[in-house]
Amino acid sequence: MIGNQVKKCRLDRGLSLSELAENAGVAKSYLSSIERNIQSNPSIHFLEKISLILNVPIETLLYGKSASTNTCDLDDEWVNLAREAKESGISQEQFREFLEFNRWRKDQSKS
């Protein structure tokens, strides 16, 4: 679970719960509830803040492994494009819908 990974990475870095919360600019109580797996679906924004302070890829918090073992390497342009989409207000659900539509359209053109 994400909470276990956050706690493991925090302890590996020698940070207290208070230090991580303060440095990342998140509520200590919310971070605590994540680590205790009371809250199990943190936002990508929250994970970005935490991963930045812990100096680990978000994938490490999500999957417990390094990004290179879980996902293909993305060049900077793809990363920037995804970041720009997020900052423009596109939700994860909207992005998923776009991908599904694009797959459907691609399949239709093959038929």
From TrEMBL:
Organism: Alkalicoccobacillus plakortidis
Domain HTH cro/C1-type: 6-61
CDD domains: HTH_XRE
Domain Sin per the UniProt entry, residue ranges: 65-103
One matching Pfam family: HTH_3
SUPFAM superfamilies: lambda repressor-like DNA-binding domains, SinR repressor dimerisation domain-like
Residue spans crossing the bilayer: none
Keyword set includes Translocase: no
Entry keywords, A to Z: DNA-binding
Keyword DNA-binding: yes
Source superkingdom: Bacteria
InterPro entries, alphabetized: Cro/C1-type_HTH (IPR001387), Lambda_DNA-bd_dom_sf (IPR010982), SinR/SinI_dimer_dom (IPR010981), SinR/SinI_dimer_dom_sf (IPR036281), TransReg_Diox_bact_type (IPR050807)
SMART domains: HTH_XRE
Name listed for the protein in its UniProt record: Helix-turn-helix domain-containing protein
